[in-house]
UniProtKB/TrEMBL annotation:
Upper classification of the organism: Eukaryota, Fungi, Fungi incertae sedis, Mucoromycota, Glomeromycotina
InterPro entries: ATPase_NBD, Hsp_70_fam
Organism whose genome encodes this protein: Rhizophagus irregularis
Pfam family, one: HSP70
Protein name: Actin-like ATPase domain-containing protein
Gene Ontology molecular-function annotations: ATP binding; ATP-dependent protein folding chaperone
UniProt keyword annotations, A-Z: ATP-binding, Nucleotide-binding
Protease as UniProt keyword: no
Length: 415
């Protein structure tokens, strides 16, 4: 299979908390389509990276958003131990992470990745058949975005899972390409460089703030809309997922861990709405359990119940509480940005672009501007930041010459 046989590029953003894909035909490279149809629902650019298994973890009963909602229905009517919900399994690919998400005993995280990719492959095939009837997967180039800090061995594990999921085979192994998430984000940001008066030889920093990881890269804009890497790509485990975890820990201290667990099982959608409000408003909240989380109340017991009854079932979340939940992740992001800026001459970086779902946080936006507006002329947040990675990955697949040069972050010795 040669590059001339490729008709369509499909990019997959396999994320820690959410995943999605986009595609484009080589004949119309400017028309990149982001999928927004998941299990009959429309309008969502991504779906949850989640799987609902049977008791033995052999069969996937539901996947994506439906895995979480279906779990609620099953737990209401049957023994909860008969089913397993698996989330955040991508983090098991990170060898640097010490405390990884818990999985069922004897369950291989690679099975979860493969099973999830199989389900996503089904949606991709339906999309391709609807858009380009008769198209064969052999005519499709798949581009997967990966965190900047992943080593070649980690990519090899993901390639194995992609192979087992049926995206490629022995004859079409060359139909799979990887691109780092910051590279994909940088390519996407090429489309907005003109809006911010960036010219040839100007340098910009891209910060991709995702759910699990935050990845950074510094690039110089070259002639012909090509990019040269200026510094080694960096990243860290400081995405929005870790803010959500801090919020849930806080809530667990107020109502009890068991009560919070029951609330998640019985009213997952209500819990997500609560997290969403907390994430986007970033302000003190008077959380009225009777109004917002009535399903939680029956599970609260003991001294915590007595205290909440005295306070009319209202939990006060003060500004300092909210700040303490966000700051560990945001301070890490600020340190990563500072390190990138310090690795180049002063004032060399003309613009900073923030993309990814976490970049929509008002508090993160404010902290970044306060910390770096004296050092970077333009700090911008491109439209639709959640789709930046997958769109940039499609653009890369359509024109791999867009990356003029890379800095290799690994060295190899020969004995």
């Amino acid at each position: 299979m040669t590059s001339t046989d490729i008709r369509v590029v499909v990019a997959i953003d396999f994320g820690t908390t959410y995943s999605g894909f986009a595609c484009a035909n080589k004949i119309n490279p400017d028309e990149i389509e982001t999928n927004t149809r998941w299990s009959g629902r429309e309008g969502l650019p991504k779906t949850n990276t989640a799987l609902l298994y049977d008791a033995n973890c052999d069969q996937v009963l539901r996947w994506g958003e439906l895995a979480l909602f279906q779990e609620q229905r099953r737990r209401k009517n049957q023994d909860a131990e008969q089913f397993h919900i698996i989330e955040r399994f991508k983090l098991h690919l990170d060898n640097k992470m010490k405390q990884k998400p818990q999985l069922p005993i004897m369950f291989d995280y690679k099975k979860a990745i493969t099973d999830y990719l199989i389900k996503m492959k089904g949606v991709i095939e339906e999309t391709l058949e609807r858009r380009w009837p008769g198209l064969s997967l052999k005519q499709v180039l798949f581009v997967l975005s990966v965190p900047a800090e992943w080593l070649p061995d980690t990519r090899a594990v993901l390639r194995e899972c992609v192979f087992r999921a049926g995206f490629i085979d022995e004859d079409t192994h060359s139909n799979l390409e990887f691109i780092t998430e910051p590279e994909a984000a940088a390519i996407h940001c090429l489309s907005v460089c003109n809006e911010h008066n960036l010219e040839e030889n100007d340098t910009f920093l891209v910060v991709d703030c995702g759910g699990g990881t935050v990845d950074l890269t510094v690039r110089t804009l070259l002639a012909g809309n090509k990019l040269r890497e200026v510094t080694v790509r960096t990243g860290g485990l400081c995405g929005s997922t870790f803010v959500d975890e801090e919020f849930l820990k806080f809530l667990g201290r107020k109502v009890g861990i068991k009560a919070l667990g029951a609330f998640k099982e019985q009213a997952y959608e209500d819990l997500q709405k609560l997290i969403h409000r907390f994430f986007y408003e970033f302000e003190p909240i008077e959380l009225d359990l009777e109004t917002n989380c009535s399903a939680l109340i029956p599970y609260i017991s003991g001294e915590l119940k007595d205290k909440l009854e005295e306070e009319d079932w209202v939990i006060d979340i003060e500004y300092d509480d909210v700040k303490n939940m966000f700051d560990p992740a945001i301070q890490t992001i600020i340190r990563l940005i500072d390190a990138q800026l310090n690795s180049v001459p002063p004032n060399k970086v003309k613009a900073m672009f923030l993309v990814g779902g976490f970049s929509e946080s008002p508090y993160l936006t404010r902290r970044i501007k306060e910390s770096f507006e004296d050092r970077v002329q333009t700090i911008a947040f491109p439209r639709n930041p959640i789709a930046a990675i997958v769109k940039g990955a499609v653009s890369y697949g359509l024109n791999m010459q867009v990356i003029e040069s890379r800095i290799i972050p690994w060295t190899f010795g020969i004995e």
